[in-house]
Amino acid sequence: xxxxxxxxxxxxxxxxxxxxxxxxxxxxxxxxxxxxxxxxxxxxxxxxxxxxxxxxxxxxxxxxxxxxxxxxxxxxxxxxxxxxxxxxxxxxxxxxxxxxxxxxxxxxxxxxxxxxxxxxxxxxxxxxxxxxxxxxxxxxxxxxxxxxxxxxxxxxxxxxxxxxxxxxxxxxxxxxxxxxxxxxxxxxxxxxxxxxxxxxxxxxxxxxxxxxxxxxxxxxxxxxxxxxxxxxxxxxxxxxxxxxxxxxxxxxxxxxxxxxxxxxxxxxxxxxxxxxxxxxxxxxxxxxxxxxxxxxxxxxxxxxxxxxxxxxxxxxxxxxxxxxxxxxxxxxxxxxxxxxxxxxxxxx
Length: 348
Fold this sequence. Notes:
The protein has 348 residues and is α/β, with parallel strands linked by helices. The chain contains 8 helices and 8 strands, in the order αβαββααβαββαβαβα.
């Protein structure tokens, strides 16, 4: 691959982080080298004590049909841990090697981002051998898909990912229930059904091209923005027959508790589909707050058996939010993340 998808930072968008302010401009991003503050040998990870799941938590997969996870199967009791990884003044292979030294393990999911007209990848330089690629593919306005004008572009994308000849997560048109992307309902006449039709059209074209190595990830934002009746998350759901994994983006920006970010999605879909926390990170609010939140997140995953994948937003280079989302910004946060990465639950 060219590293186009990895370096395409301006296309990622952390606009879905919380309130409307998170979707605005944050001034100049000043990325600085932030080497890990403690070597992995000095870390003494401690397993968290998980809180009980709330009453009413659905039995996982009680209503599921078909193979759980599609081409990337869900494995009971295990969750894959991966990342979008982009560290200042490091190539992607260098960043992978750093994380391997710190955590004593490789990424299980390699997350990359691509624009709608881009040539999608058929390899990623430096990706760990056993890692599963996840391609987040931006969309256009709905009309460009619904009028059939993009059918060949979609078919080419299908052929590219098919040529990879390995399982691939495809996360098309994420955070569609937010107002910040062209493929959101807010920018398409407030009609979520247009998104549903687009998603289904993409899948049908991929299937017609024989791209049966794809696991399809439907991945909304944790909350609806705007929070209006026409913008209900459920109205964007393409249907069980089109979705293999249900993902969700959620970040600790305003000291949100983990359950607040993820329980609404979990409660609605855990009985039907495997869950993926497809974008997650934590702001440092001072003291041990970042480490504490990572520990709380780890405990949450331990108690939610339908969660089969976690993808950290592991970067300090994002241009639209002045926060180093990488996990190793302090000795404490490094230890907390290492404990999670080395746990049996996150060893999928």
